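Posted in: Protein Modeling Q&A

I'm a second-year student putting together a small comparison for a lab meeting, and my supervisor asked me to include a predicted structure for Carboxypeptidase. I've never done this before, so apologies if this is the wrong subforum. The sequence is pasted below exactly as I got it from our records. If anyone can share the structure token output, I'd also love a short note on what stands out.
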Amino acid sequence: MAKSGLVLYGCALVLLCSCFVLTRCAPESALITQLPGFNGSFPSEHYSGYVTIDPDHEKRLFYYFVTSEGDPSKDPVVLWLNGGPGCSSFDGFVYEHGCFNFEAAKTQQGLPHLHLNPYSWSKVSNIIYLDSPAGVGFSYSKNSSDYKTGDIKTALDSHTFLLKWFELYPEFLPNPFFIAGESYAGIYVPTLAIEVANGIDTGVKPVLNLKGYIVGNGDTDEEFDGNALIPFAHGMGLISDELFEEVKRECKGNYYKPLSSTCESKLTKVDQDVGGLNIYDILEPCYHGPSTWSVPVDNDRLPASFRRLGETERPLPVRNRMFGRAWPLRAPVRDGCVPTWSELLNNNSIPCTDDEVATTWLNDKDVRKAIHAEEQSMAGTWELCTDRISFYHDAGSMIKYHKNLTARGYRALIYSGDHDLGLPYTGTQAWTRSMGYKIVDEWRPWTSNDQVAGYLQGYENNLTFLTIKGAGHTVPEYKPREALDFYSRFLAGKRI
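Accepted answer (user: helix_wrangler)
Welcome! Here is the predicted structure, written out as tokens:
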């Protein structure tokens, strides 16, 4: 029988007995009561607003919080982060696993129509969509120096956000807490998880109930990610056996930083073979077409095989929009600084992409008012991915972070859509194997809706690598049912 007792978390009085009684403490000013474009009742409560993480600079991070459609008092709380760096987490909310599907407006001046998403991740979890760092999405600072940042500072700021957010919503402190994200959030997630874990160990208040983390098609390690394209391209039938053998022989397995002109010439041939593909899903067409691509003048920082890929960002035709760059593979980097979007794009033409639905909706003044976002005079025009920030990759390889976290008992799910050419599953499979952990669940299929949905391999220390069959870079967008299945099973600690 459960013990009875009283626990006080801020203003939330929690009664622990045979049942769980929760006194809401969420700020009423953050409650969302309606959304332009949606007619009907929300399946759960929605909150949004700002958390000030630096009062002196008026640095404020924006969040959108959806409570679980199941049992909000017990279901996990999940922080979701999109990548970039520079991309808003409304990408995940609008296009991937938010509680709505967005239908484009039928008139030029109209707003998108919102319909309930049967595969929303809020079916099984409370989920926070965070725009991070400051300068991204609706998040901002009144001190422009804050727009020069990097991995480490972003993790520190996001940790500060979490501590302050849980002070606003203390009733969720007992819930299991997970951090999740995709693409460049393959760096955001583990660096933030380390900050949270260290805070727990050193007694930082409030104490978060961190249980684990999730990374999808994530940046991890320059060498592993950079060397992944060649075996992926060959395995997918994109290059010939002869070319594959030539590249292996001349490059000696080092495809990311070729050491000879002969190797470079072979990689150039690979580049020519795959250059016209949608790099975020090789099965999908390109929206604008590769004819809009142009090679940047300053591209000598990339090996030849990746220069073409480095010009552009996320060509995703399913909803035809832009997404965060898979940095180590394609974005030219000087002295650790990730280039801005304007440096990567030619004449503001974003090949294969169109973010019109999200941009139209989130820049509407009535929508901004409904979700408590600042007007454009303060937060600026909402962009899916911005070039307002100057970002430095200063955390290095993520493998040491993953080893640290999993060795401390935190559960990790590392998943990959298996048709992503930008961050191929072959690199993720290789670095998870390189951790040196014993295999405890040998390579096998996993199922969704009584069909094989992909494959997984489980390692000791609660590390799981999983693929999703037929999915591209943003898995929940391509395979929403399958994504909800593995997500809900992982959170519940069930076998996938």
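A couple of things worth pointing out for your meeting: The CA atoms of residues 280 and 420 lie 5 Å apart. The chain has 17 helices and 19 strands.
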